[in-house]
Amino acid sequence: MINEKEWNQEQERLDVVTEKLKERIAEIEPEVAELQNQAVNIRKQFWEEVTVNTSTDEDFEETYYSIKQQEALLSERERSYQLRKQQSKSMKRLLHVPYFGRIDFHEDGMRSTEQVYIGVSSFVDSDGMSFLIYDWRTPIASMYYDYSPGAATYDTPAGRVGGTMELKRQYQISESKLRNVFDTTVTIGDQLLQQVLGKSPDSQMKSIVATIQKEQNAIIRNDKSRMLIVQGVAGSGKTSAALQRVAYLLYKYREWLKANQIVLFSPNPMFNSYVSTVLPELGEENMQQTTFQEYLEHELGTVLSLEDPFDQLEYVLTEQSTREYETRLKGIEYKASTIFLQAIRNYVELLSQRGMRFKSIRFRDRDLITVKQMETQFYSYEPTIRLANRVGLLQEWLLKELTILERKERDMHWVQEEINYLDKEHYADVYNDLHKERGVFDFAEQYEEIQEMLNKKNRRDESDFDYAEQEEEQLRRMVVKEYFKPLRKQVKKMLFIDMVGLYVQLFDKERAYWTMTNEAMAPEFWNDICEQTKEKLSQLELFYEDATPYLYLKELVEGVRTNTDVRHVFVDEGQDYSMFQYEYLKKLFPRARMTVLGDFGQAIFTHATELYGIESPLIQLYGASETDLIRLARSYRSTREIVDFTKSMLPSGKEIVPFERSGKKPNLSKVDSRAQLAMCLAEEIATLQTEGFTSIAVITKTAAESMDAYDLLTEHGCPSVRLITKQTPTFEQGTLIIPAYLAKGVEFDAVLIYDASSRTYHRESERKLFYTACTRAMHRLLLFATDDWTPFIQTLDASLYDVKSST
Ligand SMILES: Nc1ncnc2c1ncn2[C@@H]1O[C@H](COP(=O)(O)OP(=O)(O)OP(=O)(O)O)[C@@H](O)[C@H]1O
C-alpha cells in the first residue's frame, strides 16, 4: 500500500483527470448533436440541393457533378459525426474508470521520467500533446505487462526504446474514487488479480486488460506469425487472451483492419453470446462469430442434411461396444486423419485422368445434355490443366450449349401450348418490350394502349403484321427462357457434378480404394466403414466426420470459393478440430492469419488434434518458420484446491500451476438412491445459493443425462433450475443443468457433477470429458455418485478431496 501523501496526490490527479474528461464531454456533446443534425439535414434535402437536368450532355454532366459534390459533403459530415461520437463514447467509458495502471519510465538519454497512466483508451490534454491516459494497446503501455520495475524496453515502429521503469502501480477506481492502490514488484501484482478472480462470474465474460499476464501479453501482441498456436491448460485465459488480441489488432491496424474481417470459430452458439460483450466493453466492435458447424451447413446448402458434432459425440459416449460402434469409431478417426486427407488429394489426381462423375442436364423428362457428352467434353481438355479449371471450362461449355439448346427449344410444340395459356401480364410484358424497342417513351400513352389492348383483347397494332410475328417470337423466347433459367442456375451452382457419387465412389473395396488414392492405407474395418458411409449417404445424410472431407473434395473439384476479405481467423477450443478441418479453413481463408487456442487435456472428440510439441501436425499447416507456439501453464479460473484435484486426473497434469487462491477442497458425496441424490443436490444448491453463489451448474455427461437430472430435480421440488441444450441460444446466469460438452469454455461459481460413478465415466476416452466438466468450477466443486466412484477419482490421492458422509 502507498502512504497517505501519495494516496492524496493520486486522488487529486484522479479528480483533475475526471474533471477534464467531464469538460471535454460537455464540449463535445453539442458538437456530436450538431454534426448529426447536419448529416440528417443534408440527407433530407439531398435532392433539393442538386439541380437535376438531363436535357443536354452538358446539363447531364453538371447534374452528375452536383450529385457527387453533395454526396461528398454528406459523407464528410457523417464521418466527422461518427468520429466525434466515438470520441464521446470512449470518454464516457473512461469516466467510470479513467485508468487502472501506471508506470514511471525514464527513457535512456532523457532528463525526466514520464508518468504513463494506462486505461482502456487514450485521453490527451487540451494542448493536444500530453497524454493524460495512454491506451493499453500503445507500444509504451506494453511495458506495464512485460516488466517489473527495473530495466525495460518497448518496441515502436521507429525501433526499440530502452530505459528504466522506476515505478509500477495499479489502481482500483470506481465512481471517481480511488478504492485501492498497489505498488508492484512482480510483473502484475497478485493482489489485484486475487481480487478479480475471487469475484463471481457474470453471465458474460469480462475484459482482463487491467491484469493481463506477461505470457498472455505475448499472445495478444504477437503480430508476426502466420499461425499462432496456444496450448493453454484449463482456465489459463486462452479465450480472454484471444479477445484482447482482437481488440489489440483492431487498434494497431485500425487504418486497414475492420472487425468484420476477423472471424472467431466458437465451440457452440451459446458461447458466442458468452463472449460477445468483451469487445464492446473495450470500445471495439465485435468480430464475426460463428461455429464450424454453421460454416459447414452454409457450404453444404440443402443437398445433404448434416449431423452435428454433438450428436456424433452423444453417439460415441452412449453406444455400446457393438461392431457397428467400433466401425463408426474407426471411421471417425480415419476420416480425420492426414492419411485420408492425402488419399483425397491423390484421388483428385486420378480424377484428372478418369472417374469424374456428372449428372445429366434433364429437361421435360429427357436428357438435354447427357453424362456421356459431358465426360467426352471434360476429358477432351488438355490434361495439364488443373481439374478445377477444367470443371470451369466445362461449366462455360454447358452454358453455351444451353444457349444453343434454348434457341432450338423455342420451336417445340409445347411452347405454343404454353403460350396459349399465358395470362394477361405476360402479354403486357411482351407488348411493353416491343414498344420500348420502338422508342415509345410516353408512359401514360403506353399505359392507355395496354389497357385498351387488354380490354378489347386487341393484342397488337393490327396494321403492322410484323408485330404479330415478332410478338409470337418474343413470347416463345420468353417462355423458353423462363424454363431454362433453373437449368442455367444448376450449371452455375455446379450441380452437374455428381458430388455425392464422387465421394461415394471413394468408399470402394480395399483394393480399388488403394488404386484410386495412389496407395493410401485403408484402416481396419474398411469394408464396414464403406457400407456405413454409403448407407448414410443413400439417405442424403452426412455423418459429421464426413462433412469436411466431402467439402474438401468438393472444393478441390469445383475450385475454391475463398473469402479473401478475412484477415484473421481465431479458432477457440482448437484441439477439437481435425487436421482436415484446419486444411479446409486454410483453403477457405487464404489471406488470413490464424490463431488457434486449445487444450489437449480437454480434447473430447475422437478426431482431436494435438496442438503443441513437435508431433503437432498443426505446425505443418503453414510450416514451422511461419508458426509460433505459446504455452500457458497457469490456471486462473479455479481455486488451488480444485486445480490440484483436477490436474491429478491428467497424465500430463504436473505441468499445471494453480494460481494461489484458496477455497474448499472438492467434495465427494456417495448416495444410495436416486431419491437421495435428488435430495442432496437440492440441499447443496440451496446452501450454495444462500452462500451467495449466483452461477451454479449441474454438469452431466450427455444430453439424456441432463434431461434425467432435470426431471429428477424438478420432481423433488428444486426450484428454478434451467435445462441447457444445444439449442439454447444465449448463456444466462442461474442454476443450470448442462451436458459437459456444452459447458466447454464457460465457467461457474460452483459445479455439481451429477454422476461421477464408474458406471458413467469408465472408458479412458471419457477421462478428458470428466476433466473438462470438473475444471468449469471457480470456487466450489461437488461430486455425486450412486455407485462406485469413477476410476479417474479412485486413483487420486485421498488428501485432494473431502468426503461427505451419507445421511
Ligand atoms: N490475466 C487475467 N486477469 C484476470 N482474470 C483472468 C486472467 N486470465 C484469465 N482470467 C480469468 O480466468 C478465467 C478463465 O479464463 P478463460 O476462460 O479465458 O480461460 P481458457 O483458457 O479459455 O479456459 P478453458 O480452456 O478452460 O475454457 C476467466 O474468468 C478469466 O477472466
Automatic annotation (TrEMBL):
Residue span, UvrD-like helicase ATP-binding domain: 211-639
UniProt keyword Hydrolase, yes or no: yes
One Gene Ontology cellular component: cytosol
GO BP terms: recombinational repair
PROSITE patterns, per the entry: UVRD_HELICASE_ATP_BIND (PS51198)
Residues given in the record as ATP binding sites: 232-239
Xref: InterPro entries: DNA_helicase_UvrD/REP, HelD_bacillota, P-loop_NTPase, UvrD-like_ATP-bd, UvrD-like_helicase_C
Pfam families documented for this protein: UvrD-helicase, UvrD_C_2
GO molecular function: 3'-5' DNA helicase activity; ATP binding; DNA binding; hydrolase activity
NCBIfam families, alphabetized: HelD_BACSU (NF041464)
Protein name per UniProt: Helicase
Organism: Desulfuribacillus stibiiarsenatis
